[in-house]
Amino acid sequence: MPASIACLDTPVALIDVPRMQRNIQRMQHRMDALGVRLRPHIKTSKCLPVVQAQIEAGASAITVSTLKEAEHCFAAGIHDIFYAVSMAPGKLAQALTLRRKGCRLSILTDSLAATQAIVDFGRQHDERFEVWIEIDCDGHRSGVRVEDDALVDIARRLREGGMQLCGVMTHAGSSYELNTSQALQALAEQERYICVSAAQRIRAAGLACPQVSIGSTPTALSAQSLEGVTEVRAGVYVFFDLVMHNIGVCRADELALSVLTTVIGHQPDKGWIIIDAGWMAMSRDRGTQRQQRDFGYGQVCSEAGDWIEGALLSNANQEHGIVTLSSPGEVAITERFPIGSRLRILPNHACATGAQFPEYSACDASGAVHTWSRLHGW
Amino acid sequence: MPASIACLDTPVALIDVPRMQRNIQRMQHRMDALGVRLRPHIKTSKCLPVVQAQIEAGASAITVSTLKEAEHCFAAGIHDIFYAVSMAPGKLAQALTLRRKGCRLSILTDSLAATQAIVDFGRQHDERFEVWIEIDCDGHRSGVRVEDDALVDIARRLREGGMQLCGVMTHAGSSYELNTSQALQALAEQERYICVSAAQRIRAAGLACPQVSIGSTPTALSAQSLEGVTEVRAGVYVFFDLVMHNIGVCRADELALSVLTTVIGHQPDKGWIIIDAGWMAMSRDRGTQRQQRDFGYGQVCSEAGDWIEGALLSNANQEHGIVTLSSPGEVAITERFPIGSRLRILPNHACATGAQFPEYSACDASGAVHTWSRLHGW
Lengths: 378, 378
Known about the structure:
six-stranded antiparallel β-barrel; D-ser_dehydrat-like_sf (chains A, B); homodimer; TIM Barrel; D-serine ammonia-lyase activity (chains A, B); alpha/beta; D-ser_dehydrat-like_dom (chains A, B); Lyase, Ornithine Decarboxylase, Chain A, domain 1; 12 helices; lyase (chains A, B); Ala_racemase_N (chains A, B)
């Protein structure tokens, strides 16, 4: 018989499965309506039952952040996998092994040097790697700029070297710095336009560039048109989190991941409630620190999940969290939150908090809790 | 045959075993000279070979931050284990199971409410729990203040309830905010004096209080006298890190934990070197942010471990790190740090960075690398 929340030891990472399913449906419907394929980024959950729910809802391919995720998902029957981090030459042997087993693993480059390493290794092992070129659409991290001659040079080097160009991809990571629908729509259009332009530039040079892959959760939920785009990658939408809530792309009742915790002490003079969820449970992510509303290490909710306004996880040591209240109220904190009582904490960043746990406790609509393991490491 | 560093996939958590052994010796010798027992806190490494090295050097007991650590170490033959986080009532059954198997597990309280829960559960199961009382010596987190009447009340409640009082303990966590030997010595003396005074207050009430346990790495390395103290708990000294280096209690060549990483790209116009160690490898810990020298997400070293002055991990996404140089130098970064070349990153906080990895690669004096697994989760 499945457990219930009342039986769980704390701290534990809880998934609200009905919320997660609604989040998955919402994104899939949006992509269907915009006429593009959804290739979810599984780096948020690193958890097969979550990925399988995304596939059941309509995703036919996935994005991964490590080759370990690719191996794990391929072993579970998922074939079309895009490893969306620039390929290190030292990881090509592992990628080759996966492809030789029948995995349709595609890889990424954004420089002539990395491309040459792929070509050399591919030729040496008689492997026609499927390769994407990363485009820099907002200056936030990696990628070649659309006006850079290296763009066409990389595409040509791949073709001359016998590799297969899948297409161009970009990630508008700077969307995490925005918080108005106007700015998000503008960045989504910039992401689309620049990536489509990169494909057109390659095509104008007489080279095939079949696919255009874009995506981040905020831009995917803000784009008004995806003309010229073939697929969207997005990850954190599956759980959402306080950073996404501050950006404005989800409601509070869409946050599907929380940490269940127990009250273990008080410092009544300071108004502190001490809980057994410190940074080892929440992660050190302070993603809301620079946003318009700083949630500390997380927003405190009741055990049932109701948001307690003004209650924040203000500070965190390894296994101790300090909860403070903006309005202490009439009842003493030792009575309102007695030792042994439980709370839930909504995280700043679902990808970082999930990674602190070897498994999730997934709570379905009936209240039954299932243990879903997740990947750790590389 | 053991691997060598050259064979390792990246990112990987490297332990420099000779440095670790010197760190262990240094702390053990200091405690021996001060006449107190060392009870290392294993929350830093969560790794049996590291703990065993501490025991071989002279530690006879350990401190843990989770009951999972206690179970793991007890299964490996370690008996005297102090779980140094205030006891949640819901965890008493797990503690009881350990004690019934023969583990000398001691637990912690800092309130009458938590003490009553221990007494009630202990009586119900006919178990005489060994209990410490936490003292607040610097206002940074948990603990009862020495002048608070609750101190003696808790000790009395434990005795009347049939439990065994081990003694008093404190942790001068505010030592992480200091950076002069004068301030550290003063805080170490404050930690000692307050904790010894708490024991004396209990004894003056006619109750036994055999032990006085204090400790944090900075105060343990700064204390001039430990009169009245019976044992010291310290954890991060086993690896040290950039936070400890900023505090001034270790040299750069004593940092024993680093993350080996591969260069996967460049943004030459911005002077960015992109590596495959992002926050998933380093953790989100920015512990040096408020110290006198901010190392970003880490100090960059050569593959061999030589500090590259002015090279920092300035920013981190999940699987991407951005390295910047304060002095770019004559040679282009694409030539000086070509794609596929390797670097090592020293972490801000060894406890947080270690937790991102399922295992360490422990490199011994001969250059051979051994895989040491570590605990994850609760």
